[in-house]
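wait is this the right file?? whatever heres the structure
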């Protein structure tokens, strides 16, 4: 039996992954770097500064930036992102999520958030979901980023549930790797591809439902 479900935030609870994409796109444009949706997949679940390093690696002729310049670019990206998320409202919770949360609650299953974003609390507040999760763990308090399991293990620990009874839900490759490294059951949500290490592959959050999840978990 599933005892807890731990959700990624950006791209699973709401489509802020799109705003991360747009904000990095503005930085890429300023720097004259190529930037595609396909490349952006590599940035999902990846920390702000590591995302910047990947983006700068796209340059045809590599340029070395000082730590101060890197910090400045990362801060600018975050300012763009913070402007974009001002438009987030409770109507932006992705399809199927509220229904699943209600089912989990009815069955006594605990819930948590495991996000690589330092803006996680702001997004949760804009969605009006402060009361919907037993724990919210974000990057601000952690030493290691996804694919390290730390964020998922910290959430499980706070909920008092052994990782083997936890399900993790992710839209990022690094995130699914983190869930598996934590010893949890992994659900990967992606329109583009499946992941062989995921225990369940779905195209969309609307396909999430408690009985199907429990059946696959027990199988
Ligand atoms: P921030 P998640 C991740 O959030 C995003 O997927 C990733 O694109 C972003 O770079 C990272 O948060 C850091 O976000 O710049 O707001 O600290 O998907 O783990 O909820
Ligand atoms: Mg995500």
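ok assuming it is, sequence goes like this
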């Amino acid at each position: 039996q599933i005892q807890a479900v731990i959700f990624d935030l950006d791209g699973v609870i709401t489509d802020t992954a799109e705003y991360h994409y747009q904000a990095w796109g503005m930085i890429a444009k300023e720097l004259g770097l190529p930037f595609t949706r396909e490349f952006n997949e590599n940035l999902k679940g990846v920390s702000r500064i590591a995302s910047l390093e990947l983006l700068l690696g796209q340059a045809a002729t590599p340029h070395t930036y000082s730590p101060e310049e890197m910090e400045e670019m990362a801060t600018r990206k975050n300012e763009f992102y913070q402007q974009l998320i001002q438009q987030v409202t409770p109507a932006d919770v992705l399809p199927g999520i509220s229904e699943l949360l209600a089912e989990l609650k009815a069955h006594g299953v605990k819930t948590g958030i495991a996000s690589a974003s330092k803006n996680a609390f702001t997004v949760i507040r804009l969605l009006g979901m402060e009361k919907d999760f037993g724990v919210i763990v974000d990057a601000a308090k952690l030493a290691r980023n996804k694919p390290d399991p730390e964020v998922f293990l910290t959430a499980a620990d706070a909920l008092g549930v052994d990782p083997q009874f936890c399900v993790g839900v992710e839209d990022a490759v690094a995130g699914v790797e983190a869930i598996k490294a934590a010893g949890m059951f992994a659900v990967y949500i992606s329109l583009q591809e499946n992941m062989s290490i995921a225990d369940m592959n779905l195209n969309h959050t609307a396909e999430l439902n408690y009985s199907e999840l429990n059946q696959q978990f027990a199988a």
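Residues 187 and 218 are 14 Å apart (CA to CA). so i think its the right one actually
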